[in-house]
Design a protein that fits this description.
The chain has two domains: 293 residues, no CATH class; 134 residues, no CATH class. It is of the alpha/beta class and 459 residues long.
């Protein structure tokens, strides 16, 4: 049975999925949130979120509006537990949203699960894939709306080059905190190097229910979910209870490009400008606080971010973007996946060759086993790798730039770059794409000036 048939069979067998409840509680040290979701006639799920209080000034969490925010986080959390059976009916038992809100969430779910549908050969329309019914009570409460009660920045960081660039450009902002979900050495070390003390790191521990792993192992439907949308609602919740005004993400304009030619299937959908605007519109209309969620790096592309990052040498031997790692060192670069190759390519115009090898441990341009991945990244395949990677144009530009540089130096061409030059047309290098600036963004005037000054300063 292929996955498209499995999808239909599971939907028939497990028709109903429910969002049963959520609970929020606190101790002197932490805030705890627990959800209950259920696939009828199969199992229940109880994922949890724990937020360390540290020395933060936190508003009263036992209010209707805080519960409203926690409920909304659950509306995103449920996607991971709905996907094993893709039940047609979703019943919201612990709250209620109107028809317009339902359509908002359905759009997010549908495009956020686009990769899952594509990789499992599931073909279904947005109208048909899910029915959402609310039988819980409506919560029309409002939060603090006085803009003077909010200030400062929350900067989510994941240990990669993008959030490091945001940290560095905003280093002179005094009132800021780093937000880390499920902290690891790499993320904590990046924050420390950026001058953020541990007391100013917001640590969140998100724990999935083990039942989802059991279902994955049993062959139920599995695939990518839009985690960044969870981060959006989570960071909004944290900004509200701590009184922070700006949530500065590090998503770039490159995230807008689809992974499948001619189709709206994007691994990074919840990192796109479209989702950012949708989230802004939704929170403005239904949550109504002065909190601003935006991507500070939205005007830039991946190669521009790589150029900026190449100058921050103190991070070069600690940052990590690989999602694979190795068995002995899980937070190392595996040097065999699309993400490793993509980051290597983006940095190559600025660091190739010795400095890059010092970071990765080997020259990825010499790896013959990465040829197919390289061709996909260049855009000469049906799909782009389903990873957080940039545009075809950037990959071609960076690769062409290094080819020209190697030729000028009279050195031997590495395997992958030789394959590119031999079989495809190189990118036009007359236009310096590292000096472009996308006008589609949500930065205010001061933030825009700050970013522009960094991008266009003399090299």
């Amino acid at each position: 049975m292929d996955n498209s048939e499995k999808f239909l069979e599971l939907r028939k067998k497990y028709k109903n999925f429910s969002y049963n409840s959520f609970q929020i509680s606190e101790t002197d040290e932490e805030i705890n949130i627990e959800y209950e979701f259920e696939i009828e006639n199969l199992c229940k799920f109880n994922p949890t979120i724990k937020l360390l209080k540290k020395n933060m000034k936190i508003k009263d969490i036992h209010t209707d509006f805080v519960r409203k925010l926690v409920f909304h986080m659950g509306m995103i959390e449920l996607i991971s537990y709905w996907k094993p059976t893709c039940s047609k009916n979703v019943i919201i038992k612990c709250g209620s949203i109107n028809k317009e809100q339902i359509q908002w969430f359905k759009k997010l779910y549908y495009y956020g699960l686009g990769e899952l549908f594509y990789t499992n050969n599931i073909k279904i329309s947005m109208e048909e894939f899910m029915n959402i019914t609310c039988i819980g009570k409506e919560n029309n409460s409002t939060g603090d709306i006085n803009e003077e009660d909010y200030s400062g920045y929350i900067i989510p960081i994941g240990g990669g080059k993008d959030s490091i660039v945001t940290l560095e450009i905003l280093k002179n902002i005094q009132d800021k905190k780093a937000l880390i979900v499920n902290p690891k050495d790499v993320t904590l070390n990046c924050a420390k190097l950026a001058g953020i003390e541990k007391e100013n790191i917001i640590e969140v521990f998100r724990k999935i229910d083990s039942n989802i792993i059991d279902l994955n192992n049993k062959g139920f439907i599995n695939g990518h979910t839009p985690f960044s949308s969870m981060l959006a609602f989570l960071s909004y919740f944290i900004a509200y209870i701590t009184g922070y005004k700006y949530i500065a993400l590090s998503n770039e304009s490159s995230a807008n490009e689809s992974n499948v030619e001619g189709e709206k299937i994007n691994h990074q959908y919840s990192k796109t400008y479209e989702f950012e605007n949708d989230f802004k519109d939704y929170t403005t209309k239904y949550l109504k606080t002065p909190i601003k969620y935006f991507s500070f790096l939205r005007p830039l592309t991946e190669i521009q971010i790589a150029k900026l990052f190449s100058k921050y040498e103190k991070y070069h031997n600690i940052f990590k973007s690989c999602n694979v790692g190795s068995k002995s060192k899980p937070w190392n670069w595996c040097c065999n996946c699309p993400k490793c190759l993509f980051v290597y390519i983006m940095l190559s115009p600025f660091l190739y060759k010795e400095k890059l090898i010092n970071i990765f441990g080997e020259d990825l341009f010499e790896k013959e086993n990465l040829k197919d991945t390289f061709i996909e990244l260049l855009g000469y395949s049906k799909t782009k790798p389903f990873e957080c990677v940039g545009t075809y144009r950037e990959v071609r530009y960076a690769s062409s730039f290094v080819i020209r540089k190697i030729k000028e130096e009279g050195k031997e061409m590495p395997y992958l770059l030789n394959e590119y030059e031999k079989n495809y047309t190189l990118e036009n290098l007359e236009i310096d794409i590292t000096k472009e600036y996308n006008k589609e963004h949500n930065l205010d005037e001061k933030q825009d000036e700050l970013l522009r000054s960094e991008v266009f300063k003399d090299d």
